[in-house]
């Protein structure tokens, strides 16, 4: 049950091309903003689009940026905590606005207000892309006293520097930029971290209007392909019974599995992975809320089915091989591994995870050193960690 | 001699009180352990990691592991190593080898700026008579009569962990054990703090005492790097810094949130000519150093090892955290045990019975009492850790000693009795000295 992986270059191209109609790149380039579009479903979360303005501001060429992770813009003095907060926002699939020290290709650092927001698929509520807007800002330190005047001198240079950064930059000014005194002193002072960098309301507004423009552009061009996007996750069937953050974490597990809730009547499925849907041929809304027995059919051995139910009622792990049927009624042998999973407070079994393995399909050669059950154990491990982690993060809303 | 009383943590199902141990390790035990009574002819899986900076290959000569990379299981299983370790761990859980179910331990991130993590773990601490530990001697000779990891059952070992011959990952599910060269192994910690909590025991049959040497630290860094997830951290506690067992071991586990220590700011102190950069930790209750960079993993490892050896030789207890898949290494000297022995720790802190080892110092507070868990706050965690730290003056002294030692090309200065101890336990390697790049020793003024 392995997901096919396209060669990277094609996947990156397709990330934009498959969702938006042809002229979207040109339209995005016409916008006067510095921004990237990244695709979290491709390993490495690479940049799939970088606006013309951003390339000018940063000094990179398109080829040097497409396919790379967004961290190429950061450097030694970029505040570690800010970077971690951005990573956290990506994990939780929400937007974030934070100041950050970025670096041009030639190594010159400059402060930005980084505004990142997710773009959701209207159809299934999944995150398609993240858009990262970079608004250059003039840092306003909170420090007072003698240090201020030292820093102010640099800020004047910074402002002049930023003057070149705004909209109408053209390629020869990149050479001019390198003449401007290095901002290292302001950046080197490690007390001078991002949390001390205040941003004006005007700059924040700039970020918000950039977001609005980009989003409406993307929405427009997605209409033409029929794969509508939206700024909000609006698909209710996506929000299965496990809550937003856990949903997100589980979405990263690429194997076929479901979570069932033993506390609800008839132990329904509350989460189903994409791989499960692919294997069984059902759509998500057709499986959520139902007990797994719908996968059984005419030839399914009843006692095996009962074993599954029994395991869930007694809270014990078990392995069974059961004959299941896809939506098109084609049968397949399903080696199920079922295990209880506790919630983050640890007090009770929150879910049962059922990991499917289609036995017709597995490649003998690939499995020679690991028994299939071992593979399924790794899914259980990943699910346990996901459930535990999402429960730990108290502030995430469920 | 300074001593404290504490209940030792149980790391193996075969770890018993000294009293129960009795004499003689060679009593044939029938437990399937790793000593001469049971080991000959035994086989354990072997995970051979590539030493060179090479990307894991795909499907060459039927190496079975490459396909696991396509699985990308969640946030912690990103490479074969993670997958294999965790599924083996889950397997041992199913087999009931752990003293308690760690997923049954309530855990939360304490609200606040730093994100300390609190766990209520009543099962980890035994309701047993506390044992005496000598806390003023960081280097102690290996004692055959005490518990050591060759006494663990083979079922507690997950796999042997060795460098691969040809620079690529190799996996052997049933490899014989090379008794002469002694493999390094990864075993479960039967009192886990988190899911996937394991022990790395370098050269297990050689009975190395708990002290860092260059080769062992490099092995630990390689393991951190081999794991795909930056949420896999490797830690070390010296004697006197709450190591329980005087048999060389590192610990590791997965925790899918950042540690407060990892988020702390740092001020650069210097560069070395081998590319290693050293920083001082700022805005954190425990003072320490961070090592990053290096022209190779070995360069980074050697600089850290030189520092640890220096601390050991000067009898300063310390903890080490390897983070970000081996890219950042924290070294934090501490003095909590000494204070405890001298009666300088408040009753309030002592009552929590928290032993501040590397995980607690990193910000993962494992609490024994419900009231401590319910009332856990950032302020309390901060206050506890402040007690663990060396004072500013003492830390500056220690830094001076460290820098003098590791940047000096001459043989490390050691006091006569330390030299003797060092010789007892296997000699000192003095050919790993990196020089400070001249002219680059920066000393930024702190505002």
TrEMBL record, chain A:
PROSITE patterns: PAS. Residues 24-69, 269-315 form the PAS domain. One of its GO terms (biological process) is response to blue light. The keyword Flavoprotein applies. One of its GO terms (cellular component) is nucleus. Keywords: Chromophore, Flavoprotein, FMN, Photoreceptor protein, Receptor, Sensory transduction. One of its GO terms (molecular function) is photoreceptor activity. SMART domains: PAC, PAS. Transmembrane segments: none annotated. PANTHER family: PROTEIN TWIN LOV 1 (PTHR47429). This is PAS domain-containing protein. The lineage of its organism: Eukaryota, Viridiplantae, Streptophyta, Embryophyta, Tracheophyta.
Automatic annotation (TrEMBL), chain B:
It comes from the Eukaryota. Keywords: Cytoplasm, Guanine-nucleotide releasing factor, Hydrolase, Nucleotide-binding, Nucleotidyltransferase, Transferase. Pfam families: GDPGP1_C, GDPGP1_N. GO terms for molecular function: GDP-D-glucose phosphorylase activity; guanyl-nucleotide exchange factor activity; hydrolase activity; nucleotide binding. InterPro entries: GDPGP (IPR026506), GDPGP1_C (IPR058865), GDPGP1_N (IPR058866). It is found in: Cytoplasm. The keyword Cytoplasm applies. Residues 260-407 form the GDPGP1-like C-terminal domain. GO terms for biological process: glucose metabolic process. GO terms for cellular component: cytoplasm. Residues 81-253 form the GDPGP1-like N-terminal domain. The keyword Cytoplasm applies. Belongs to the GDPGP1 family. This is GDP-L-galactose phosphorylase. It comes from Deinandra increscens subsp. villosa. The lineage of its organism: Eukaryota, Viridiplantae, Streptophyta, Embryophyta, Tracheophyta.
């Amino acid at each position: 049950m392995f997901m096919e992986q396209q060669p990277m270059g094609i996947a990156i191209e397709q990330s934009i091309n498959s969702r938006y109609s042809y002229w979207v790149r040109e339209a995005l380039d016409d916008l006067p903003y510095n921004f990237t579009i990244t695709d979290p479903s491709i390993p490495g979360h690479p940049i799939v689009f970088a606006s013309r303005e951003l390339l000018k501001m940063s000094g990179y060429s398109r080829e040097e940026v497409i396919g790379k992770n967004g961290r190429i813009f950061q450097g030694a003095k970029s505040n570690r905590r800010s970077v971690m907060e951005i990573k956290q926002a990506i994990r939780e699939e929400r937007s974030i606005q934070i100041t950050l020290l970025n670096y041009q290709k030639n190594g010159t650092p400059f402060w930005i207000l980084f505004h990142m927001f997710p773009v959701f698929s209207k159809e299934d509520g999944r995150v398609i892309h993240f858009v990262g807007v970079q608004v250059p800002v003039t840092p306003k330190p909170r420090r007072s006293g003698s240090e201020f005047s030292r820093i102010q001198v640099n800020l004047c240079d910074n402002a002049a520097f930023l003057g070149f950064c705004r909209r109408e930059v053209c390629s020869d000014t990149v050479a001019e930029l390198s003449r401007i005194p290095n901002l290292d002193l302001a950046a080197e002072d490690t007390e001078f971290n991002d949390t001390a960098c205040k941003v004006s309301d005007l700059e924040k507004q700039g970020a918000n209007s950039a977001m609005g423009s980009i989003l409406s552009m993307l929405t427009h061009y997605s209409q033409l392909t029929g794969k509508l996007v939206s700024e909000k996750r609006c698909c209710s069937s996506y929000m299965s019974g496990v809550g937003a953050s856990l949903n997100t974490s589980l979405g990263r597990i690429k194997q076929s599995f479901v979570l069932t809730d033993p506390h609800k009547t008839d132990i329904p499925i509350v989460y189903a992975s994409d791989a499960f849907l692919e294997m069984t041929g059902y759509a998500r809304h057709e499986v959520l809320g139902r007990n797994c027995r719908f996968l059984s059919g005419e030839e399914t051995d009843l006692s095996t089915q009962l074993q599954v139910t029994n395991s869930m009622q007694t809270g014990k792990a078990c392995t069974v091989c059961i004959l299941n049927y896809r939506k098109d009624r084609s049968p397949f042998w399903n080696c199920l591994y079922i295990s209880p999973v506790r919630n983050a407070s640890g007090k009770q079994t929150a879910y049962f995870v059922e990991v499917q393995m289609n036995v017709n399909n597995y490649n003998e050669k690939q499995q020679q050193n690991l028994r299939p059950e071992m593979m399924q154990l790794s899914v259980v491990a990943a699910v346990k960690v996901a459930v535990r982690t999402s429960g730990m993060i108290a502030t995430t809303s469920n | 001699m300074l001593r404290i009383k504490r209940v030792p943590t149980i790391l193996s199902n075969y770890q018993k009180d000294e009293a129960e141990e009795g004499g003689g390790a060679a009593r044939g035990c029938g437990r399937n352990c790793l000593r001469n009574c049971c080991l000959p002819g035994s086989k354990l899986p072997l995970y051979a990691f590539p030493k060179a900076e090479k990307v894991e290959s795909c499907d060459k000569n039927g190496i079975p592991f490459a396909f696991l990379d396509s699985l990308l299981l969640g946030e912690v299983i990103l490479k074969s190593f993670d997958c294999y370790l965790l599924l083996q761990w889950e397997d041992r859980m199913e087999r009931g080898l752990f003293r308690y179910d760690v997923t049954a331990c309530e855990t939360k991130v304490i609200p606040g700026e730093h994100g300390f993590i609190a766990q209520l773990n009543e099962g980890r601490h035994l309701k047993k008579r506390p044992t005496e530990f000598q806390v003023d001697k960081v280097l102690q000779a290996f004692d055959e009569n005490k518990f050591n990891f060759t006494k663990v059952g083979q079922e507690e070992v997950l796999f042997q962990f060795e460098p691969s011959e040809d620079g690529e990952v190799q996996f052997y599910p049933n490899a014989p054990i090379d008794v002469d060269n002694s493999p390094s192994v990864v075993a479960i910690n039967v009192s886990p703090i988190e899911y996937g909590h394991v022990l790395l025991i370098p050269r297990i049959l050689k009975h190395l005492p708990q002290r860092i040497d260059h080769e062992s630290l490099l092995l630990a860094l390689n393991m951190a790097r081999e794991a795909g997830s930056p949420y896999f951290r490797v830690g070390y506690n010296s004697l006197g810094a709450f190591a329980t067992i005087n048999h060389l071991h590192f610990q590791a586990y997965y925790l899918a949130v950042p540690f407060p220590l990892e988020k702390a700011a740092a001020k650069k102190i210097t560069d070395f000519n081998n590319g290693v950069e050293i920083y001082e930790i700022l805005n954190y209750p425990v003072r320490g150093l961070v090592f990053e960079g290096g022209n190779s993993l070995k360069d980074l490892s050697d600089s850290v090892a030189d520092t640890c050896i220096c601390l050991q030789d000067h009898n300063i207890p310390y903890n080490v955290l390897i983070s970000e898949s081996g890219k950042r290494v924290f070294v934090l000297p501490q003095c909590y045990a000494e204070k405890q022995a001298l009666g300088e720790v408040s009753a309030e802190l002592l009552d929590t019975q928290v032993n501040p080892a590397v995980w607690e110092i990193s910000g993962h507070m494992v609490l024994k009492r419900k009231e401590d868990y319910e009332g856990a706050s950032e302020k309390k965690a901060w206050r506890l850790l402040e007690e663990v730290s060396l004072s500013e003056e003492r830390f500056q002294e220690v830094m001076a000693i460290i820098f003098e030692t590791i940047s000096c090309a001459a043989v490390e200065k050691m006091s006569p009795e330390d030299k003797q101890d060092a010789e007892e336990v296997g000699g000192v390697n003095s050919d790993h000295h990196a020089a400070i790049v001249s002219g680059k020793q920066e000393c930024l003024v702190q505002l």
